[in-house]
Amino acid sequence: MSGRRLLLGLAVAGVALFLYFSKTQVNPVTGEKQHIAMSVDQEKALGLQSAPQMAAQMGGEVDPSDPDAARVKAVGRRIVERSNAGRSPYADSFQYHLLRDPETVNAFALPGGQIFVTEGLLHRLTSEAQIAGVLGHETGHVVHRHSAEQMAKGQLGALLGAAAGVASDDGSGRGRNAQVIAATVNQMMQLRYSRQDESEADRYGVDAMADAGYEPRAMLEVLEILKQAASGPRPPEILSSHPLPETRIAELEAYLKEKGK
After folding, report:
1. What is the per-residue pLDDT for 6?
2. What is the pLDDT, as a whole number, of residue 130?
3. How far apart are CA 171 and CA 222, in angstroms?
4. Does 13 score more than 70 pLDDT?
5. Which among 97, 121, 94 has a CA at the least distance from the CA of 208?
6. Catalytic residue selected from 119, 138, 198, 215
7. Is 253 annotated as catalytic?
């Protein structure tokens, strides 16, 4: 019986790996080969479907005619029009939203180009260049297709965890333990990849800012603002989906120096 379970577990793992590695696409902007869980059109549809619910969770969207909301939209469009985001498959899909949440300091991007910033973050920013830094970073997540990559990795991890459970299941509970261990390892790997994505988006953001005519070093000011906002106990960096602000500042300083900016 144990041999059959092992073979079945290996078969599930083989299918998982085949599905993951067969979904390879070349990013049309970066030229990077990526394992992607969905098409560009599916990303756009998912983002549009998710946007109202995400906005509702943070107080709803500020009326687009509001001066702050209009400013966010204008800076976002300038980033798209003057950077390589305008040559991406998402060029006509980028939309920049201001959320009516004065307490939460946050910005995020949904697949396909729906980008949000809260009033809590916007009101801490003191220049248009800093706004461009935030929006450039989030635009980078979309251009680099980070959400679609994470979904593909998540699907792979879930199937490999199931394979470990099947192969180890002898009725004693060891199969369940193996599945939990596999899920924990997968979660840690996802956090590591997420931190890499944040660093990649930071670099994209400063390049997009420069292309759009903003001072790229204003991104460092944004990170200092985020550092000040991160009050209270913080988890160790290895358990966080984002690098600590100090780490991001150091990495970005090195990148700006390398690029002569």
Report:
1. 56
2. 98
3. 53
4. no
5. 94
6. 138
7. no
